[in-house]
Amino acid sequence: MAEIQTPNRPTKPMAESRNFMAEIVGEESLAGQRMQAGAILDLMDVLAGRIAVQHAQGPVVTLSFDRVDLTYPILHQDLVRIEGQLAAVGSSSMMIHVQGYRMDSLSREFMPIQSSFITMVAVDGELRPNKNIAGIEVTTPEEAELNETALKHKAMAQQWEKMQREPVEDRVLRIQDVEDPINREKMEFFSSSESQISLRRIFLPRNTNVLGTIFGGDILLWMDRVATFCARHFTRNKHMVTIAMNRIFFRQPIRTTDLVEIDARVVMVRNYTLEVETVVRLQRKDGEKVESHSGYFTILNYNEAGFKRPITTGLKLDDADQEGLQRYLQARQRREFWEKTKSEV
Question: Which pTM does this prediction carry?
Fold first, then answer.
C-alpha cells in the first residue's frame, strides 16, 4: 500500500529529543568481570525506541544498528549511562545518535564506551511505515554537525549494503586470491561450516513490545550470546567478549507464533579477534520461511588475567568450497571498508 505523507510537515527542535538511561548492569556475583555487549545493545535499543516514540507520537520498530565499537570493557556491576537524541529524520525513519558511558571507579567520572546510530521507523497498527511524523529543527552548530555526520553514516550504510549484495567475484576463487597472511600462520584449522552453531527457540509473550512483536533488545541479547558461544567453540577459550557489532538489520518482525532459528559461524580470523556472522530465520505458522535479522560480531580473545590472547585457530579454506571462500572475501572487504571509512566520520 502506498504511503501518504502529510503536507506542510511540522517540525520539532532537535534538542527536545534528548534523553538518557542509566543502569547498573550485570550480576552481583560476577562483579568486576567482563560482561557481554548484549546488555549494552539492549539499553541502546530501549533508549532509541523511547526517543523515536516520543518524536513520532506513535509506535516504532528498529530498522538497523550502525557499527558499534566498544572502546572500553564493560564489567559486571558497572554503572552505565546511555545518552541519545535525534540526529536526522526521513519520511518515516529516524536516526538516533546514541552515546554510552561507564563510571570509572578510580576517577569517579563517566568514560565513553561507544557511539553509534540506530535507525527507527514509525509504523501504524499494521506495521506499515507512517509518514505522518514531524521533521526536526537544527538550530546550533553542534546540531548541524551531528545531522551532517548522521547523513554521512546513512550514505556509508547504503554503500555498505550495496557492496554486500553485489557478487563477490564473477570468476572461480582460489585460496591464494583471498587468504590473509595472518590466517596462514595459525597452528590448527577449522572450516567456517564446522564452526557453525545453530539454535532454535520460540519467544514467549513476556518478550513482546506494545506492537505484540518480540522486543528488539531481546533479539540482540540472543544474537550476541550465540555469536560469543560460536567464537568460544572455535577457539576453545571461554574468555571471549564482543568488542564491536557491524550493522545489524531488522528485516522482519518476530511473533510468538514463529519458530526462530539462528545460525552463527566464524568468517574471519585476525591476531586477537575474529568475526562471527549471525543470521536469524523464521518459520511462520503458515509454513513460510523468511530471514529476519543479520549482523556481524567482532569478538576479542583474552586470557584469565584480562590481556589479549593470540588466536591459534585459523579458518580452513578449500578451493572446492566456493561459498566458504566468498564468505571469507566478503569479511575481508567489510574490514577494509571499515578501516577506510572510520576516519571519514
Answer: 0.88
